[in-house]
Design brief:
Layout: H1 12-24, H2 31-46, E1 52-54, E2 57-62, E3 65-70, H3 71-89, E4 124-125, E5 136-137, H4 138-149, E6 153-156, H5 163-174, H6 184-207, H7 222-235, E7 240-245, H8 250-256, H9 262-269, E8 289-294, E9 300-305, H10 314-330, E10 338-345, H11 346-351, H12 354-361, E11 373-378, E12 381-382, E13 385-386, E14 407-411, H13 415-432, E15 436-441, H14 459-466, H15 471-482, H16 489-508, H17 532-535, H18 545-555, H19 566-580, H20 587-600, E16 604-609, E17 624-625, E18 632-633, E19 646-650, H21 656-668, E20 672-677, H22 688-695, H23 698-702, E21 709-713, H24 728-733, E22 741-743, H25 748-760, E23 767-771, H26 785-789, E24 796-797, E25 809-813, H27 817-827, E26 833-838, E27 840-842, H28 846-855, E28 861-869, H29 875-881, E29 889-893, H30 904-919
Helix pairs in contact: 1-3, 3-4, 6-15, 6-16, 7-13, 9-16, 10-12, 10-21, 18-19, 18-20, 20-25, 21-22, 27-30
Length: 931
């Protein structure tokens, strides 16, 4: 019996639908059909000519069995393959480039490449059902396919592995052959927004000749795209928009989408000084903005565009963090009510690795935001570099395929296509809570900035651009032909808008100072801006013992009826004993009790980083797993009914993107203790751009406070160059005035109080803490309950055992090195040495250090001791910020390029030499290079 005789009786439309289903998801079709389709695909891929054709029948060999297929069904099959070809590769043959001829790709979509011929054009095929036009001629099917896939919009989506998404996309783009059918009023509105975009740029070009503005010209259709997203999203229930973009077109977006007054932008162009003396400000195309607006339909919306440094794409991670914070705070029932929009440049999205990190966050529990709309302002050039020299991938948006996100490539000159694609992107995001990309293919009218000469490097391209009409005029001509407007309509629009700009320019020149509006002012109500000396004021961080006991009781008892690993059970039991019996708290207890106390007071806590749930050094165990089910148990979320939420997430293997995300989170949620922990301290160098551009400088540039805490494990334990130093010298070199706190604490109580101080103060500063490794279980690095419930953070800790009259050497040190020196002091009975710990390195505790020098006035030897090499650690920072340090005897390792030796033997020897020199200044001075 013929194994595939069912082919002779099958209805062709059913066959078409089944094969279409197979192409999307092979496992969704019945096994015999799947085997047949696999065999047929193999045959087609090998060669159509190898199929044995006998007049009206075709023989197909599948798994060693032959079966005869009617020629009509064979042709139907080939039409289905043609449709699949358009779906998979149609985007390569579009009309999406307004100023260049497209690259040529092979094979083409010619019907001959699918076993069809011109003689088939008038044949009716049931395969038309697949694209929603019913049985139709091949000629009409091809016409529809060309219109859907190869006009001003190219769609990439066939790599998506979720059939319901693929079907939704196909159904959406099949309507009107992927072309909009807008009412005349909508068309006029699109024209109006295009006019605003073009007139704004023209106005700036004539009024501020030669000034940098990074114009949008060539991609002005971004404005109607953003406008329709905001308006339609507001109708769909979106309450807040969070946007990030670099400089290209930013001023235009601020004015025409976010509602920033052109008057304020003109003041920035005029170069006026700032109203506040303590604020240095930034260039106008980096500033952030927040506004409360009403959509055209009267929906209230809050819109924020994050401040952005020159480092391309950096703001994308920050935007995601801001959006997540807003969702966690107000929209946990429906996170889609906060919509992140990230605008990229084409060279940047392809060339900046941060985009990949942000894309990978999109579906992770700790970082997902319910889908982001990514829009690429594609100038087809990066500064002066052509796109062929800027990437290997076919498209700048190919990173979208990492998360199987759809991509729409759109001709920026076709305003209606741009708006149509924007509506698709919004509806996809709202329905599937996933990312979607729009590649807005335009050009850049001028050079990188308005004073640049692009013809030096792209003479041919810029010759074409100089003759090219702008999108408004192209669209206006189309609307005149359609009878929607007359020839005077655009001139009237242009005059009205330019008159309003003239009025605002005149108003701006009546003012002497530029006023910078605070970003997200509502979230930051009640917080004050403070100077360096105010950062040194004591903050009450005490917490009552009764309340602390309740917290300790919860976090030292595992839930009954669940089986945990024996090591976990022992750990929790040890914590109970150390609190309730021994009164000897280790580092983990001090840290966890700090979180618990803040949670009870209404402050949320969010921590993320690589392996933070357990802790890199297996000390934290904030999340514990039930042995059999791996159910997560977070004891800190079971303190009381009114407590705030504790969130802790193991991050993806990223520093740059994750630090950016958490910085954004802290920016939008000042009452959440937001912490990022490095796996090892120097791993933070992967996030150096965030540290330089945001953490250390944002308050000075953008009037922007932020309370992000960075925990950086630091200490020399013989683990080699990459696992010893958190490179504290880099952070300290960035310290100035009042920009952040830097600390290297030595006790659990100090950790408890410094974390509480971060939330209990009425201002926010970034806090960098160099946390220990060996001290996590060091028998001397412990605290009493009374140290937590009383006292507060101590910037300097005196040597309580020292008799000032006997002290001849006063040794200032910091961090884990104190315990190494303490052991040596006790071993040698050196009561003539006082070890004073500098726990806060910035702002430098000048008064306390001077008081220590005064107390130990008999000391003729004042030492700064550090385990780091002389060119690293805190020594150079002390020289800069503490005049008395010039008279200190410096004890450290010699100058080295690498932070530490790879050999543990060599590392221990060097370490011991430094310790010895602290106590005997006649020893070889290890801080000097060998001759």
């Amino acid at each position: 019996m013929d194994k595939y005789s069912f082919l002779n009786t099958v209805h062709t439309s059913f066959f078409s639908e089944l094969y279409d289903k197979y192409l999307v998801n092979p496992d969704s079709v019945e096994p015999s059909w799947r085997a047949f389709f696999q065999g047929f695909d193999f045959g087609m891929e090998s060669s159509l000519d190898e199929l044995e054709i006998d007049e009206n029948r075709t023989t197909v060999v599948v798994n060693g069995h032959s079966s005869e297929m009617p020629e009509s069904l064979q042709k139907e099959f080939q039409v289905i393959r043609l449709i699949d070809g358009y779906r998979s590769r149609g985007h390569l043959f579009t009309k999406t480039n307004p100023v260049r001829e497209r690259r040529h790709y092979e094979p083409t979509l010619d019907i001959e490449n699918f076993g069809l011929a011109s003689s088939d054009l008038d044949t009716i095929f049931n395969a038309g059902d697949v694209i929603g036009i019913g049985p139709n001629s091949l000629k009409e099917i091809v016409r529809h396919l060309q219109s859907i896939y190869c006009d001003a919009i190219g769609v990439e989506y066939m790599y998506i592995r979720k059939p319901e998404r693929v079907k939704w996309i196909q159904d959406w783009i099949n309507v009107n052959d992927n072309h909009p059918n807008f009412e005349p009023d909508r068309k006029k509105h699109i024209l109006k927004k295009l006019n605003h975009a073009i007139s704004f740029e023209t106005f700036l070009h004539t009024k501020y000749v030669g000034q940098k503005r990074f114009s949008l010209e060539g991609n002005e259709s971004l404005i109607p795209a953003l406008d329709v997203i905001v308006e339609r999203a507001a109708e769909m229930g979106v309450k807040q928009f969070v946007m990030g973009m670099a400089h290209r077109g930013r001023l235009n977006v601020l004015t025409n989408i976010f509602g920033k007054s052109a008057k304020d932008i003109f003041s920035e162009f005029d170069g006026k000084d700032y109203e506040q003396e303590i604020f240095d400000g930034d260039v106008k195309y980096h500033l952030g903005w927040t506004s409360d607006r009403k959509s055209d339909n009267g929906n209230k919306i809050k819109m924020s565009i994050a401040p952005n440094p020159s480092h391309l794409e950096t703001v994308g991670a920050v935007v995601e963090g801001i959006a997540r914070a807003k969702q966690d705070a107000d929209y946990q029932d429906d996170i889609s009510k906060v919509l992140p929009i990230v605008v990229h440049g084409d060279a940047a999205i392809a060339g900046q690795g941060l985009v990949y990190e942000v894309v990978q966050m999109a579906g992770l529990d700790g970082y997902k935001t319910g889908g982001t709309i990514h829009i690429v302002v594609n100038n087809q050039i990066g500064f002066t570099t052509n796109y062929l020299d800027a990437r290997t991938s076919t498209y700048c948006t190919d990173v979208a395929k990492v998360t199987l996100s759809p991509v729409l490539h759109v001709n920026a000159d076709d305003a209606e296509a741009v708006v149509h694609a924007s509506l698709f992107a919004l509806e996809y995001r709202m329905r599937f809570k996933g990312d979607v990309f729009i590649d807005l293919l335009g050009y850049r009218k001028y050079g990188h900035n308005e004073g640049d000469e692009p013809r030096f490097t792209q003479p041919k391209l810029y010759k074409a651009i100089s003759k090219h009409k702008n999108p408004r005029d192209i669209y206006a001509e189309r609307l005149i032909q359609e009878g929607v407007i007359d020839g005077t309509y655009v001139k009237q629009l242009e005059k009205q808008y330019k008159d309003s700009l003239e009025e605002k320019l005149e108003d701006s020149r009546k003012e002497d100072k530029t006023v910078i509006t605070p970003f997200m002012a509502d979230e930051w109500k009640g917080f004050e801006n403070v100077r360096e000396w105010e950062m040194m004021d004591a903050v009450n961080t005490k917490f009552t013992k009764t309340k602390l006991n309740k917290i300790a009781k919860v976090i030292t008892a595992l839930p009954e009826g669940k089986k945990f690993l024996r090591k976990v059970e022992k750990l929790v039991k040890d914590r109970y004993n150390m609190y309730f019996e021994a009164d000897n708290l280790d580092w983990a207890m001090g840290e966890l009790l700090a979180y618990g106390s803040l949670l009870e007071e209404g402050y949320a806590v969010r921590m993320s980083g690589q392996d933070v749930e357990r802790g890199t050094f297996s000390h934290r165990h904030a999340v514990m797993k039930v042995e059999e089910s791996e159910e997560e148990v977070i004891l800190l979320n079971h303190l009381s009914e009114k407590q705030a939420k504790f969130q802790i997430y193991n991050s993806l293997l990223s520093e740059y993107g994750v630090v950016g995300f958490d910085y954004g989170y802290a920016m939008a949620s000042p009452n959440t203790l937001t912490i990022w922990e490095a796996q090892f301290g120097d791993f933070s160098n992967g996030a150096q751009i965030m540290i330089d551009q945001y953490i250390s400088a944002a308050e000075d540039k953008w009037k922007l406070q932020n309370g992000l805490v960075m925990l950086l494990p630091h200490g020399y334990e013989g683990q080699g160059a990459e696992h010893s130093s958190a490179r504290m010298e880099r952070y300290l070199q960035l310290c100035a005035k009042d920009n952040m706190y830097i600390a290297d604490v030595t006790t659990p109580a100090q950790m408890f109080h410094i974390l509480r101080r971060q939330m209990k103060s009425n201002f926010r500063k970034p806090l960098i803490i160099f946390t220990p490794k060996s001290l996590l279980r060091h028998p001397r690095a412990v605290s009493k309950i009374a140290d937590l419930t009383g006292g507060g953070f101590q910037e300097v800790i005196d040597d309580e055992t020292a008799d000032a009259k006997k002290v001849k050497s006063l040794v200032f040190c910091t961090g884990k090195f104190y315990y190494d020196l303490l052991a040596a002091k006790e071993e040698n009975n050196r009561d003539d040495v006082a070890l004073v710990r500098v726990e806060q390195l910035f702002p430098i505790p000048e008064k306390q250090m001077k008081a220590a020098i005064a107390k130990y006035k008999n000391a003729d030897d004042v030492v700064w001791a550090q385990e780091e090499p002389r060119n690293m650690g805190a020594w150079s920072h002390l020289l800069t910020h503490f005049d008395e340090a010039r008279n200190f005897r410096v004890v450290s390792r010699r100058f080295y390029a690498a932070p530490a030796a790879g050999s543990s033997v060599r590392s221990k020897a060097r370490h011991q030499q430094v310790v010895d020199y602290v106590f005997d200044k006649t020893k070889d001075n290890m801080s000097k290079p060998k001759k």
